[in-house]
Design brief:
By secondary structure, this protein is of the alpha+beta class. The protein has 4 helices and 22 strands.
Length: about 400
């Protein structure tokens, strides 16, 4: 009886000793974050900052050189096409003449007066010559009928008559030219404020479209040249979005792709659609000083206008343009994926151990990737595997923070 009790006690002692040894020698499990693989929606997007702009902006410019009076409209005012006065201009007045310019202008007047006198003299001379030619032609015509003068003589006089009539027409034209030259020379002597200057104020410019005033370039009264922009008009309800993308991203998109508009200041995201991808790119220097090839992509807002009420021209937005999407995709977080040679791999939790497994990936976005081969729904992968994890490592799930 005593012997049996001794054997049992020795066996228990050996069991306890072995258990303590195993516990002491067993490696501590590595705490990890696990993610369960499942099927669900996946979107691949091209993300970019953009800004809104009014589709059609009308710049109203000065049609003449003159003085633009104080602008009758302000930024934000509503205008109606053909009814609202958006600018008032007074034609430029004559310049004051210095002594030299006045002397030259007075000399030009005297020269023009002399030219007019010469033109009048030549017209009188042409008139007398024409009268003589007409008289000789009538007399010769009578003599030809009596047989006294030959037909040849009559034809010569008729030709001379035509020449003299043409000379008379040229003399009249020369007289009119001389009058015009004199009027132009006298106009150069008109001083500002003189009665001859007259009053031509003012030229009013009407709004070419119905909308709102976007900018007022000339607010106070000032002298402007013809073609100077005075104001800009547009319809704030006719908005589009422009985003400059890297050319490598732009080639992945197509016209008609839908987009999600975020961070524009509203309570909900807006929807948009790609209308045009510009055919030409341009070079832009990034904030890091790197030259990049950029392409402008134009999008139309497809949300109801009341959803983005208050948005105007030049507002900042953030775009997620959908390149590809599916509602039923087996995906894995990119934080669980790592390179194994030329392949992709993950660590899968298998009975408390880490199992390295090679997988094949498809499309991916910034957070998840499509799994084509290597994983099945329900399996759990290790997120952010550290250097402590290898094939066969004992693991345990890290407790969730409360």
């Amino acid at each position: 009886m005593l012997r049996t009790r001794t054997v049992v006690m020795a066996g228990l002692a050996l069991l306890v000793t072995g258990t303590l040894g195993y516990v002491a020698m067993r490696p501590e499990p590595v705490a990890v974050d696990l993610h369960e693989i499942a099927r669900g929606p996946l979107q691949v997007t091209v993300n970019a900052d953009g800004k809104t702009r009014i589709r059609e902006i009308y710049d109203v410019s000065a049609p003449i050189t003159g003085t633009a009076q104080r602008a009758p409209v302000r930024v934000g005012d509503a205008v109606t096409a053909g009814e609202t006065v958006v600018a008032v201009l007074e034609p430029a007045a004559a310049n004051l003449l210095d002594a030299r310019s006045r002397s030259q202008a007075e000399a030009a007047v005297r020269e023009a007066e002399a030219g007019l006198a010469v033109a009048r003299s030549k017209m009188r001379q042409a008139s007398e010559t024409l009268t003589l030619s007409e008289s000789e032609f009538r007399r010769a015509d009578t003599l030809v009928q009596r047989g006294v003068v030959s037909q040849t003589r009559l034809e010569e006089l008729e030709q001379r008559l035509h020449i003299d009539r043409a000379a008379m027409t040229a003399a009249v034209s020369a007289l009119e030219m001389a009058k015009g030259t004199l009027d132009r020379a006298r106009a150069a002597l008109i001083e500002p404020g003189a009665p001859e200057a007259g009053s031509s104020c003012c030229l009013t410019v009407m709004a070419p479209m119905s909308g709102q005033v976007l900018t007022v370039d000339v607010l106070s009264e000032q002298t402007v040249l013809a073609g100077t922009r005075l104001i800009s008009l547009g319809d704030p309800g006719d908005l589009e979005i422009v985003a400059d993308l890297l050319s490598t991203d732009a080639v992945r998109l197509q016209e008609g792709d839908r987009a999600i508009v975020e961070r524009w200041g509203g309570d909900r995201d807006l929807s948009a659609r790609v209308r045009r991808i510009e055919p030409a790119g341009y070079t832009k220097v990034s904030a890091l000083g790197i030259e990049e090839q950029r392409v402008d992509v134009i999008l139309d807002l497809t949300s109801a206008p009341e959803d983005y009420a208050g948005m105007g021209d030049g507002f900042a937005v953030f775009l997620r343009i959908v390149e590809w999407e599916s509602d039923d995709v087996l995906s894995v977080p990119l934080s669980a994926v790592f390179r194994q040679g030329a392949n992709w791999a993950v660590f899968v939790e298998a009975a408390g151990l880490a199992e390295r497994r090679t997988i094949t990936l498809g499309r991916r976005n910034d957070h998840n990737a499509e799994v084509l081969e290597g994983l099945t729904p329900g399996e759990r992968v290790i997120l952010h595997p550290s250097d402590q994890i290898s094939n066969g490592t004992l693991i345990e799930r890290r407790p969730e923070e409360i």
